[in-house]
Amino acid sequence: MPHAKIMKLKESISRILSQRFVTAKELASIAGQLNSMYMAIGNTSSAARIAYSDASDTGYGGYIVELGPQVAAQGVWSFDE
To answer: Which residues pair with 61 in a beta bridge?
Structure first.
């Protein structure tokens, strides 16, 4: 995938996300750009992150597995909770 194509797509997406209103032509342009990348990207999908969690009467725990650093949380319930 040429770097210029990726940059054009990123710029197009950033532009429409910064606008309050988007024209059909702008959306069609992004759809066309994505469609033209289909052969290089393919139609496979994969999970970017998976969350595991558990809670009981006394506490909780969980973590997220993703492409990159892991995020974890754990603790115990307060008396009020």
So the answer is: 54, 74
Q: Is the pLDDT of residue 15 over 70?
A: yes
Nearest to 56 by CA among 34, 77, 71: 77
Angstrom CA distances, 79 to 2, 61, 62, 72, 76, stand at 58, 17, 20, 23, 9
Q: Report pTM.
A: 0.49
CA-to-CA distance for 24 and 9, rounded, in angstroms? 16
Q: Which residues contact 69 (CB under 8 A, 6 or more apart)?
A: none
The mean predicted confidence, pLDDT, of the chain is 79
CB 28 within 8 A of CB 15: no
Q: What is the largest CA-CA distance in the chain?
A: 58
Q: What is the pLDDT of residues 37-55, one digit of tens each?
A: 887 777 666 666 777 777 7
